[in-house]
Automatic annotation (TrEMBL), chain A:
Organism: Frankia torreyi
Domain of life the protein comes from: Bacteria
Protein name per UniProt: ABC-type uncharacterized transport system, permease component
Classification via Pfam families: BPD_transp_2 (PF02653)
Taxonomic path: Bacteria, Bacillati, Actinomycetota, Actinomycetes, Frankiales
One CC-aspect GO term: plasma membrane
Transmembrane segments annotated in the record for this chain: 6-26, 38-55, 61-81, 86-105, 132-153, 181-203, 209-230, 237-259, 271-292
Alphabetical keyword list: Cell membrane, Membrane, Transmembrane, Transmembrane helix
Any one GO molecular-function label of the UniProt entry: transmembrane transporter activity
TrEMBL record, chain B:
Name the UniProt record assigns to this protein: ABC-type uncharacterized transport system, ATPase component
Highest taxon in the source lineage: Bacteria
Keywords annotated in UniProt: ATP-binding, Nucleotide-binding
Cited PANTHER family: ABC TRANSPORTER DOMAIN-CONTAINING PROTEIN, IMPORT ATP-BINDING PROTEIN
GO cellular component, one term: plasma membrane
Residue intervals of the ABC transporter domain: 2-249
UniProt xrefs under InterPro entries: AAA+_ATPase, ABC_transporter-like_ATP-bd, ABC_transpr_LolD-like, P-loop_NTPase
One example GO MF annotation: transmembrane transporter activity
Length: 312, 267
């Protein structure tokens, strides 16, 4: 059981930044950015390449982030200059990036060897202790990312970003330049994908040109799963980062559990799709129940507030 | 001073489905003037508002605000000077965001948005003060989602948001149209109070002839993308609702009627 949780952490934590990026576009901007399928690999590839060239692991992490962020910037440019939807721009990018990524890697799979990654110091530890140490380092990085992102959402810029997704016309009438924020959102989301990919690559010890396939759907599934537990909304920022964290780990738990039960790795995509369906179904049918519970809670709260006011 | 110079606003120019929203429109609004605008559907009232706010860019002509040519500035660049309240109560606020986030968004209007925190204790105090003036108890619900508010509350909040950054122009685009009679009275009272407080040039589009006559110190009647009548304070105070409606419907019928209208106005 502990091993299942450890597996969940070491494979799930690198995905938290990735899915946070997907949340940014999917929920905060109410849009779909498929670039992530390619930019995830771009981030991992750049990270792997820089590591092979002897860069320090932290720098390689940042390089991977920057590489993926650049891919997001290109998507934003396509969207703005050619006036096509982000969905289409991202789709084109996700296809085109495959070739770019292959050129960056120069081989379908680039192995890192055992030295020079964030986690290579743990090689001497036993399996479980190494996993523990690995997830500790990952948790540190993820915590920094989540806190920084939460704080960013509280700034004027972050607030403007949240507003454009809810009511773009209103945001513009309040002086928000939503074109600029589209660029920001896409750069940020893909940068986060690159960061997660870099963490993942350093843990796995290799980068693969196909490692991004299915990232988008997995991310959406994780977000929907997280929303079942945490119920985020535009101004509840703790819940936003909490939703991504819980959703990602729950999603990984399902996959790790499926592997433990003995399902072949080839079935994992099927499990991902099923998870997505279950999350959607639960949202549809349990959502009504949850809504009722929340209404009750709210009425009780306002009733008790009224009582308090009368008493005062 | 807000000046529209020979404005044409034409959609789908040169095509079969060409729509002329505004035609050779020239109006000057004096600083602090409160102008009401009436006209039938398609008269160009909302196009006038959009041209001033920057949401629509005129096909021809210039828009000047306080001596500056703002014709080419998009709406979000004009937002520092020009505040706008929409006809749909849901349009002016972000329902998913809290009351304080909505207000904070409005407070940063006209400034460059950076990495300062949007809601601080000091700003919250300012918000509370502004919202308390509404008498709706919203000052104790700053963290609530705006989506929980009624249409009237939301429109009142939008009015407060419009006033927060002391705009020099206030645009009210049928902002009472979607409210029930009771709420209309409340928001109307708020409107007159706010306009007086702000001293901003105010353009209020309305379908309600009573409001058009009772409020403000100038009345424009629009038809087919032009201003067909322009009454100043005294002319306006002598006007009756019946007379106003006659003029509007008269203008809508045929071009020849318009000259008759202008004679009537002159007499």
């Amino acid at each position: 059981m502990i091993q299942v949780l450890l597996d969940m952490l070491v494979t799930g934590l690198p995905l938290v930044p990735v899915f946070l990026g997907i949340y940014t576009v999917f929920r905060l901007r109410a849009d779909f950015d498929l670039t992530v399928e390619g930019s995830f690999v771009t981030g991992g590839a750049v990270c792997a390449l820089t590591l092979v060239h002897g860069w320090p692991s932290w720098l390689a992490l940042l390089a991977g982030t920057a590489g993926a962020a650049a891919a997001g910037a290109v998507t934003a440019l396509i969207h703005l200059l050619l006036r096509v939807p982000v969905l289409l721009a991202g789709l084109v990018m996700s296809i085109g990036l495959f070739s770019v990524n292959l050129h960056v890697l120069d081989t379908p799979t680039l192995s890192l060897g055992t030295q020079g990654t964030l986690f290579s110091g743990f090689g001497s530890l036993s399996g479980r202790q190494a996993d523990l140490a690995t997830s500790g380092v990952m948790a540190g990085v993820v915590a920094v990312v989540l806190v920084a992102f939460g704080l960013f959402l509280r700034t004027e810029l972050g607030l403007a970003l949240r507003a454009t997704g809810v009511n773009a016309r209103m945001a513009r009438s309040q002086g928000v330049n939503d074109r600029r924020l589209t660029v920001l959102a896409l750069v940020l989301a893909n940068g986060l994908a690159g960061l997660g990919a870099s963490l993942s690559v350093q843990y796995q010890g290799y980068a693969d040109v196909n490692m991004g396939a299915g990232t988008f759907v997995a991310g959406v599934g994780a977000v929907l799963l997280g929303e079942l537990f945490v119920r985020p909304s535009g101004s509840k920022l703790l819940r936003i980062v909490g939703c991504v964290l819980v959703g990602t780990l729950a999603y990984r738990l399902v996959l790790v559990g499926a592997l433990r039960v003995g399902l072949p790795a080839g079935d994992l995509r099927g499990v991902t799709a099923l998870t997505l369906l279950v999350a959607i179904a639960a949202e549809r049918y349990l959502g009504a129940l949850g809504g009722l519970a929340r209404t009750l809670a709210h009425t009780t709260r306002s009733a008790s507030a009224a009582v308090r006011q009368e008493a005062a | 001073m807000l000046r529209l110079d020979d404005i044409d606003l034409i959609y789908n120019a040169g095509r079969v489905d060409e729509v002329v929203a505004l035609r050779s429109l020239s109006v000057t609004f004096e600083r602090g003037q409160f102008v009401t605008v009436v006209g039938t559907n398609g008269a160009g009232k909302s196009s006038l508002i959009q041209t001033i706010s920057g949401a629509a860019r005129p096909t021809r002509g210039r828009v000047h605000l306080d001596g500056r040519d703002v014709t080419r500035l998009p709406d979000h660049r004009r937002a520092g000077w020009i505040a706008r309240v929409f006809d749909d109560p849901r349009a002016g606020t972000a329902p998913e965001l809290s009351i304080e986030d909505n207000l904070a968004l409005a407070m940063a209007r006209g400034r460059r948005r950076g990495l300062r925190f949007a809601v601080t204790a000091r700003r919250r105090a300012v918000m509370r003060e502004h919202v308390a003036g509404l008498g709706l108890g919203l000052e104790n619900r700053l963290a609530d989602r705006v989506g929980l508010l009624s249409a009237g509350q939301r429109q009142s909040l939008t009015m407060v948001m419009a006033a927060l950054s002391a705009p020099s122009v206030l645009l009210l685009d049928e902002h009472l149209a979607a409210l029930d009679p009771g709420t209309t009275a409340t928001v109307l009272a708020l409107t007159t109070e706010l306009v007086r407080e702000l001293g901003a040039t105010t353009v209020m589009v309305t379908h309600n002839m009573d409001h058009a006559l009772a409020l403000g110190d100038r009345l424009l009647v629009m038809s087919r993308g032009r201003v067909i009548a322009d009454y100043d304070g005294t002319e306006k105070s002598e006007m009756t609702v019946g007379g106003l409606i006659d003029r509007i419907t008269g203008a809508g019928d045929a071009l020849s009627d318009r000259s008759a209208l202008i004679e009537k106005v002159a007499s």
